[in-house]
Amino acid sequence: MVEAGLAKVIYDNRKNLQISKIPKLEETMALVVLILNIIFPGIGTIVAAILTDSDEKRKWNLIFGVLQILLSFLLIGWLWSILWGVIIYYRNTGAMKNMPDALLS
């Protein structure tokens, strides 16, 4: 139920949240990325960038990961990193798992 609600919110706000930049990963790797982003801000995002097949998503997630690391001392980067990890996890599990990228861009 939560996944469906999150999928609707993300679908409705996809332009504002840059949802098209979310990398598509295996379910277990999405969980690893989430845990890394909680413990080491930005590192999970960089790992996700390395694991994705899309050059566009790789570029943006590398940028996001570096910014999350640089801003983590202000707590903004850490919160962003956790949120991005949760979004990556939900994108690759549950209701959004089978949603085509075309609907997210």
From TrEMBL:
It is found in: Membrane. The keyword Transmembrane helix applies. It is a multi-pass membrane protein. The keyword Translocase does not apply. Keywords: Membrane, Transmembrane, Transmembrane helix. GO terms for cellular component: membrane. InterPro entries: MFS_trans_sf, SPEC3/Stum. This is Uncharacterized protein. It comes from Acrasis kona. SUPFAM superfamilies: MFS general substrate transporter. Coiled coil: none annotated. The chain crosses the membrane at residues 29-51, 63-90.
